[in-house]
Each structure stands twice: as C-alpha cells, then as structure tokens.
From TrEMBL:
Functional description taken from the UniProt entry: Transfers the 4'-phosphopantetheine moiety from coenzyme A to a Ser of acyl-carrier-protein.
InterPro entries to which the protein is assigned, alphabetical: 4-PPantetheinyl_Trfase_dom, 4-PPantetheinyl_Trfase_dom_sf, ACPS, Ppantetheine-prot_Trfase_dom
Location, primary (coarse class): cytoplasm
Entry protein name: Holo-[acyl-carrier-protein] synthase
HAMAP family: AcpS (MF_00101)
Family statement: Belongs to the P-Pant transferase superfamily. AcpS family.
Keywords: Cytoplasm, Fatty acid biosynthesis, Fatty acid metabolism, Lipid biosynthesis, Lipid metabolism, Magnesium, Metal-binding, Transferase
Record domain 4'-phosphopantetheinyl transferase: where: 4-95
Reactions catalysed: apo-[ACP] + CoA = holo-[ACP] + adenosine 3',5'-bisphosphate + H(+)
Length: 117
C-alpha cells in the first residue's frame, strides 16, 4: 500500500548561488559523502530530501543528515535513513522507500514513494 508520495524540483543554478552565498550550508544539508558530488547531483539530492519530507508529512524536527542519498553499484539511488527520519518512517509503517532522481536542462528533480508491506 502507498503511504506517501513526494516530489520536488530545484533550479540548479539558483541552488548553486545559494550554496555560494551561505557558507556552511553544504555541511548542514549533506553528509560528507554527498557533499563531494557535483552541483547537479547536490541539487538532485536536495530535491530528494525535500520530496522525502513531503512524503513523510513534513514533520518538524527532522534532520537533514538523517536521510542520506547513496547509490548502488548499478547507479540506482536509494535512501539510507536513521534517527529522526527512521523514527517517522517507522511511525507510519514504511517498509520501502522508492526514489527517482533526474537533472536536465538546468533543473533537478526527485520523486519519493513510501510503501508499506
């Protein structure tokens, strides 16, 4: 059963300008492994975290580092969740988190679908 769906889009250039304007923003939003990626990938990962928050009902108290986007050896993106995000997912009965990322023509996007068993 589908428990939640979230989507987000990010203008890559504008996101890059925000990162340049605000020292420390990369470290607040992204884990060290995520932070090493190129700008378009960062924008897509930010969109993914926003989409996940929406799918979870945008509860307060969630921490950015508690949802990390990692890639399987095939390149398929997935979330590693912990802490506040894992607690909210457990509260909702989430058994699977599906993630799709894209970036093209200056836009990064992400879709998240939460599913229960």
């Amino acid at each position: 059963m589908i428990l939640g769906v979230g989507i987000d889009v990010v203008d890559i250039e504008r996101f890059g300008e925000s990162l340049e304007r605000t020292p420390g923003l990369v470290g607040r939003i992204f884990t060290p492994a995520e932070a090493s990626r190129p700008l378009a990938s960062l924008a897509a990962r930010f969109a993914a975290k926003e989409a996940l928050a929406k799918a979870l009902g945008a509860p307060s108290g969630m921490h950015w580092h508690d949802a990390e986007v990692v890639s399987e050896s095939s390149g398929r993106p997935l979330f590693e969740v912990r802490g506040s995000v894992a607690a909210r997912a457990a509260e909702l009965g989430v058994s699977s988190v599906h993630l799709s990322l894209s970036h093209d023509a200056g836009i990064a996007s992400a879709v998240v679908v939460l599913e229960s068993a």
